Amino acid sequence: MPHYQKLLKIPTTGKNFQNITAKIAAIVAESGVETGLCTLFLRHTSASLVIQENADPDVLVDLANFMAKLVPESGQYIHNAEGADDMPAHIRTALTHTSEHIPINGGHLVLGTWQGIYIWEHRQRSHTRELVVHISD
């Protein structure tokens, strides 16, 4: 069973969604795998991966607003070594995902029509996030 793996370093712009669908699709094409599985793993505890609506940006705004209400930065957290957004970012990551699995068919990601792959940065400031893309045949 052939495997293909690549490490991406993706800069984020602070608390936001970074659409990485095209980058992942390019790696799938580069791998040459026609039928298989693409596994994504984000090597961080204060950012997450989501597969979400890619047509109407209001969906992402609503998700961010919901998460801000669910896990406020104004909470009384013990862990705040890197600022008020430190522990809330860890909680937001625990409530979402750091990995995703997407089938490959015909050399393409099998995403729904309105699905995109995003890194969801939970910290206020910019970071460079490391994403492992593993493709298996």
From TrEMBL:
Transmembrane segments: none annotated. SUPFAM superfamilies: YjbQ-like. Belongs to the UPF0047 family. This is Secondary thiamine-phosphate synthase enzyme YjbQ. It comes from Chrysosporum bergii ANA360D.
